[in-house]
Fold this sequence. Notes:
This protein is an alpha/beta fold.
Amino acid sequence: MAPQxxxxxxxxxxxxxxxxxxxxxxxxxxxxxxxxxxVQAIATINPSEVWYAAPxxxxxxxxxxxxxxxxxxxxxxxxxxxxxxxxxxTTRALLRLAEGQDSSFDAIHLHVxxxxxxxxxxxxxxxxxxxxxxxxxxxxxxxxxxxxPFWRKHSMRLTGRACQLICPVSExxxxxxxxxxxxxxFRVIPNVVDTELFHPSAEPSSKDxxxxxxxxxxxxxxxxxxxxxxxxxxxxxxxxxxxxTILGDGDPKPHQEFAKSLGIEQHVTIGGEITLDEVxxxxxxxxxxxxxxxxxxxxxxxxxxxxxxxPVISSDVGGIREHLNDERGRLVPAGDEEALLNxxxxxxxxxxxxxxxxxxxxxxxxxxxxxxxxxxxxxxxxKR
Length: 384
């Protein structure tokens, strides 16, 4: 679904080429969907085109190129056989899209530095246009950065230092990128939420149970779904009017088996990937969102929950504390299941101001707010 409309184009609005390291495609329908939502928001003010090089696993029949055109946005995807080195093949695929083109773009906006950063640097230099970067990746933080090979760190730093401005989605990520050596000029612009799609239910709930919703990749060493399930088992020994719904684009089967081993499968629904429309519907039906990740930046599902008028329980990681306070939910230390239990009890017993939650989401994360923030950012760029 396209985001809600915002101010119409002015004739002098800058035309932006977005180059994405992650983006939805026929290879992976949900990868980088938050990048796509950023681009769609920007396109409500600034004419935009997005290029993405999508790796294709062996045996899959996918066309060489794909172009999707709408009134305000053109999406161009170049497919290539997935093989190493990733940067080289990604760069070749993206430069293939540039063949025969003279730049009509006023700036290049890179989304996630690796692996598309090399192509973005080449085109910014070739066309003599400014380059900026929006970053979502958790790899800059502490233990995560230690896992990166040297050559990948080097590539990321080259990209960061070629950018006139870097726009992380949280202050916490900005600080990690500074210490990583990505550059000096940062401006935080958060993830975007379609506040027309995500909104509170028009009807008061008639359910007898209180439902906690979890939506993620379901990767346990990241999202700690098992910790949520253990907490659910303890809570259900205290009161049986609680329900958990756990959904995501990862493999639900291990979590289904674990819930069964805990004896709570009657109170827990665990499923796979759902559409964004279905996510919004589930938000309206739920009473609270629950996350218990070991690490994050600032997940889109948090402001989506607030736009839907429901509070959030989350582990205190990444940039989440920049927006999540006791008026919007509860923060708990990562991995502390006793603290998670206490937060569940408090959320269950406390009244919440749904409209105050939604107002915060509209003011900070709406398409209108984020599009205007990027528009001002583009206007501040210096021509090379």
